[in-house]
Amino acid sequence: MNLAITGGTGFVGQALIDRALARGCTVAALARQPQPPRDGVSWVRGTLADGAVLAAMMGEAEAVIHVAGVVNAPDLAGFEEGNVAGTLNMLEAAKQAGVPRFIFVSSLSAREPELSNYGGSKARAEQLVKASGLDWTIVRPAAIYGPRDREMVELFKAAKWGIVPTPAQGRLSVIHVEDLCELLLALVPGGEGVTGLSIEPDDGRPGGWTHYDFARAIGFAMGGRPKIIGLSEKTMKRAAKVDGFVRRKRAKLTADRAAYFSHPDWVVSGDARPAASLWQPRIETREGLKTTAKWYRENGWV
C-alpha cells in the first residue's frame, strides 16, 4: 500500500517506516529538514502548518498514519499548535485528497485531559478525528520505549549512575516501539473491529508495572541494581521547577509532565486492548529493555 506518514524522522516514525518498507509499502513522509534518499520513501519537506505541503504528501496515499505530535512544550500554545491544529490540518488534507483511512497515534494521557496540557491537547485532537467523517482508528499507546527514544533514555542514564527517580505511587503499561509499529500497520486496511474505535496497546502484562518494578527492570537491563527513589507529586513539581531553571526550554521534567507522571493509573484498559486475532505483542519487556540498553551503549547515548 501507499502510506502517508507524519513524524517520520522521530522515534516512532523511523521504526514505522522501517517496518512499512519491510512489508513492501511505499511511503510519503513529512520532514522539516532534508533527508537522505531512501528507496521506497518520498520525503516531503515542510510542517503540519503548511496545507500545500500536506496536500502534496497525500499524493497516491491510500491511508494516513499520523504519528507526529508535541510531547513537551513550555506552555499550552505549543501543545495546541502541534497536536490540535496539526491534526486538524492533516484531516483536512486527507479529506481534500480523498484518502479515506486515517490512523491517529494519540496517548493514554487523553483519558485524563484535565491533568496536563499534553493530555488535554491529545483529547481535543481525538475529538477532531472522530468528527472528521473519515474511516478512523485512534491508538493510545502505553509508554513507548526502544532504540532511538530520546525521552526514556534519561532513565537509562540515571540507572547507569546508580539512582533512578520515579513516581512514588501508581502503575503504568509499556510497549516496545516495534510492537506498536506492527499494530499500526495491521490497522491500515481498516474494517470491522477497528474502524471507529480507540485502541490501547501494551506489552500484555496484566495490571501493568509499578514504577518501582519498571525502574528495577531498566537497572537490570543496564547491568546493575540502582537505588530507586520514589518521588511524591509535590517533590516532582519542585524538581520540575529546578529543571526549568537549569535547562530552560530544554527541560525534560516540566510542571505539565510532573502532574501527568504522578497520576496513579496509566495502565491500559482491558476492554480497549486490540483483539488478539488482529495483533499481539511479541517483545517481552525485560528482553526489550536489554536490547534497548545495548543500542544506547553502541550509539553512545548512555
Mind explaining what this structure looks like?
It is a single chain. The protein has a domain at 2-145 and 174-203 and 266-282: NAD(P)-binding Rossmann-like Domain (Rossmann fold), CATH 3.40.50. Helices cover 40% and strands 18% of the residues. The chain has ten helices and 14 strands. Strand 1, helix 1 and strand 2 form a beta-alpha-beta unit. It is globular and about 55 Å long. The model has no long low-confidence stretch (mean pLDDT 93).
Observed structural traits:
single chain, 302 residues, 7-stranded parallel beta sheet, 10 helices, 18% strand
Spell out the helices and strands N to C: EHEEHEHEHEEHEEEHEEHEHHEH
Q: What is the alpha-carbon Rg in Å? A: 19 Å
Count all strands and give the number. 14
Highest CATH level, the class of the domain at 2-145 and 174-203 and 266-282: Alpha Beta
Q: Biggest β-sheet, characterized?
A: 7 strands, parallel
Estimate the helix proportion, in percent: 40-55%
Structure classification: alpha/beta
Task: Return the CATH architecture of the domain at 2-145 and 174-203 and 266-282.
Answer: 3-Layer(aba) Sandwich
Shape: globular
Beta-strand fraction estimate: 15-25%
**Mean pLDDT over the residues:** 93
N- and C-termini, Cα separation: 38 Å
CATH superfamily of the domain at 2-145 and 174-203 and 266-282: NAD(P)-binding Rossmann-like Domain
Uncertain regions spanning at least 5 consecutive residues: none
* Number of H- or I-type helical stretches: 10
Biggest sheet: strand arrangement: 3-2-1-4-5-6-11
